[in-house]
Amino acid sequence: QKEVEQDPGPLSVPEGAIVSLNCTYSNSAFQYFMWYRQYSRKGPELLMYTYSSGNKEDGRFTAQVDKSSKYISLFIRDSQPSDSATYLCAMSRLKGAGGTSYGKLTFGQGTILTVHP
Amino acid sequence: ETGVTQTPRHLVMGMTNKKSLKCEQHLGHNAMYWYKQSAKKPLELMFVYNFKEQTENNSVPSRFSPECPNSSHLFLHLHTLQPEDSALYLCASSRPTSGSVDEQFFGPGTRLTVL
């Protein structure tokens, strides 16, 4: 079983739709949950992160973590063509006395999203 | 741009060639990483360096040899590769901070094709 499972899609939605992207994981030691966005011919960039459980909102983006179900989600409201990209979930454990999330990220496969006008 | 540059952007090599990938970060970070990204697979962490010291080697075959001469530069030396090594090789850097997420900044990658 993979540590992190993510449906690769592809997912195609019309402009303005609400997009839901999800990952499941098996390692209960994961504490930091991240979403990266990767445009074509670019490296991934961190979009949002959440520590432990709960929700986090940033503009049109909302990240949710349900540790009891080992399930994380990213919602995109009012999706735009510029949101077309591959979305990667990533997770890590705490490491070090200071509780830093350091070094070893475990990624999902990535979901390819296309928002068409 | 993210402040992490990679050269070359594209590389085609034969199985008997020797080549090197270069990564440079201009962010003042102390940790640097090599990842492999293959189609339909998750990003795979290959190597981690912190303050020039290798702290992770994820069971990577010896035909991949990393080198980190200082905190700003990272190399990946390649020799006698196999066609299945064809992938996008990504470099990243970060400054791990106590009590916070370790945000890794990625370069654009080197698209490697092994013939």
Any overview of this molecule?
The complex is a heterodimer of chains A (117) and B (115). Chain A is mainly beta. Chain A is built from no helices and 13 strands. In chain A, a hairpin with a 4-residue loop joins strand 7 and strand 8 (71-76). Chain B has 115 residues and is an all-beta fold. Chain B contains no helices and 11 strands. Chain B has strands spanning 4-7, 10-13, 18-25, 31-37, 44-50, 53-57, 64-70, 73-79, 87-94, 105-106, 110-114. In chain B, strands 2, 4, 5, 6, 9, 10 and 11 form a 7-stranded mixed sheet that branches. In chain B, strands 1-3-8-7 form a 4-stranded antiparallel sheet, with no helix packed on it. In chain B, a hairpin with a 2-residue loop joins strand 5 and strand 6 (53-57). Chain B is globular, with a radius of gyration of 14 Å. The interface between A and B is medium-sized, with 32 and 29 residues.
Topology, element by element:
The complex is a heterodimer of chains A (about 120) and B (about 120).
Chain A: E1 4-6, E2 11-14, E3 19-25, E4 32-38, E5 45-51, E6 54-58, E7 61-66, E8 71-76, E9 85-92, E10 94-95, E11 100-101, E12 106-107, E13 111-116
Parallel strand pairs in A: 2-13
Antiparallel strand pairs in A: 1-3, 3-8, 4-5, 4-9, 6-7, 7-8, 9-12, 9-13, 10-11
Chain B: E1 4-7, E2 10-13, E3 18-25, E4 31-37, E5 44-50, E6 53-57, E7 64-70, E8 73-79, E9 87-94, E10 105-106, E11 110-114
Parallel strand pairs in B: 2-11
Antiparallel strand pairs in B: 1-3, 3-8, 4-5, 4-9, 5-6, 7-8, 9-10, 9-11
